[in-house]
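Throughout this chapter, every protein is written as a compact record of paired, labelled lines. The reader may check this reading against the record printed directly beneath this paragraph:
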Amino acid sequence: MADDSTRRDADWRDAARRDAARRDIEKSWDDPPEIRRATRYAVVVLALTLASTALLGLWAYLGRSNCADSPTPVCGTADRYLLAIVPAAILMIGGIGAFAETYAVWKRGGTWPAWHGAGWALFMLMLVCAALGAGVLAT
């Protein structure tokens, strides 16, 4: 009797694996809640990035009294480094988190491409922020 139960469990697992592999190959993903979760995650990371950039910019601008004759809005070295590094770092951490969730969803047999796309979108935005930050540090 135990062999029948074990065999049924193994057959069920094999069928589930074949179904997940078929969905991967056929690209037949339809999981709106998972897509919404991935989109919400990417939007929250982007909002945190924008909020941190705005707060760092405001902090740098308000601390500008000791360099009023500077031609640039941000004249402190620490301010420039923070403005260059923090937004890109937030996006990088968010992208790594999205890729970690991609793996977790894939491992569960879920719709992982939404998370994969969110990770790549965050990494591309990180590259843009890093390029803009390098421009700020170069001046």
